């Protein structure tokens, strides 16, 4: 059984419900919720197969589905997956822990052209599972596929520790930016978007 994620251990009761309603309101108010999705869409071929890993209530995967990609979304929180199924039909939404990901056993045997971990996913996984999460994601990639992840570097995961996890997972950093809209990386940035590939 997977170690409980920080989403479970470090948030208050009702956090999932609050999070779902927050994004429903933002969408209703016309907020731009597709920044991560636009970046991924620009990086892949048309009709690509994309995994939204740590998908939450589905905003990124929903956008990628709308622009024509084959999308699977995975999150460890069944409440978030239930909201994704209601609000964003189309992608295949699944409940699973990223550190133990085995999508072929869940009816998704084909590898992915891209895997996106948006919304601070890496700082909400269980402490010490960074290598497991990256390794299990990498196992679901095509040979020329990539992983892109972004998170606030002032949270529980130091960028130096993340970079070591990347190496330990058998991956390499191809690009790094300070934002999802590709502002240049600088060490003083409080956010890091990293594109990872298998060497």
**Second CATH tier, the architecture:** 3-Layer(aba) Sandwich
Question: Which structural class fits the helix and strand makeup?
Answer: alpha/beta
Q: Which CATH class?
A: Alpha Beta
Domain count: 1
The Rg value, from CA coordinates, equals: 16 Å
Topology pattern, helix = H, strand = E:
HHHEHEHEEHHEHEE
Q: Give the CA-based shape.
A: globular
Give a quick rundown of the structure:
The protein is α/β, with parallel strands linked by helices and 199 residues long. The protein has helices at 6-9, 15-28, 35-43, 59-66, 78-87, 121-124, 130-138, 159-168; strands spanning 49-53, 70-75, 92-95, 112-117, 141-152, 172-177, 191-197. It is built from eight helices and seven strands; from the N terminus they run αααβαβαββααβαββ.
Keywords:
alpha/beta; globular; 8 helices; seven-stranded mixed β-sheet; Rossmann fold; 199 residues
Care to describe what's here?
With 199 residues, the protein is an alpha/beta fold. The chain has one domain (35-197): Rossmann fold. Helices cover 34% and strands 23% of the residues. It contains eight helices and seven strands. Strands 3-2-1-4-5-7-6 form a seven-stranded mixed β-sheet, sandwiched between helices. Strand 1, helix 4 (59-66) and strand 2 form a beta-alpha-beta unit. Helix 3 crosses helix 4 (59-66). The longest helix is centred in the N-terminal third of the chain and has 14 residues, at 15-28. The radius of gyration is 16 Å and the shape is globular. The mean pLDDT is 95.
């Amino acid at each position: 059984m997977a170690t409980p994620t920080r989403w479970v251990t470090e948030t208050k009761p009702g956090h999932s419900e609050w999070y779902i309603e927050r994004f429903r309101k933002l969408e209703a108010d016309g907020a731009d919720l597709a920044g991560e999705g636009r970046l991924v869409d620009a990086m892949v071929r048309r009709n690509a197969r994309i995994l939204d890993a740590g998908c939450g209530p589905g905003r990124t995967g929903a956008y990628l589905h709308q622009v024509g990609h084959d999308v699977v979304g995975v999150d460890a929180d069944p409440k978030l997956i239930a909201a994704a199924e209601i609000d964003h039909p189309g992608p295949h939404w699944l409940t699973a822990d990223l550190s133990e990901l085995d999508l072929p056993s869940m009816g998704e045997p084909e590898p992915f052209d891209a895997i996106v971990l948006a919304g601070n996913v890496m700082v909400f996984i269980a402490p010490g599972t960074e290598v497991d999460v990256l390794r299990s994601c990498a196992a679901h990639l095509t040979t020329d596929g990539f992983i892109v992840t972004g998170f606030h570097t002032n949270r529980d995961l130091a960028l130096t520790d993340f970079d070591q996890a990347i190496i330990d997972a058998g991956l390499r950093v191809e690009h790094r930016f300070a934002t999802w809209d590709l502002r240049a990386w600088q060490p003083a940035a409080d956010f890091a978007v990293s594109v990872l590939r298998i060497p």
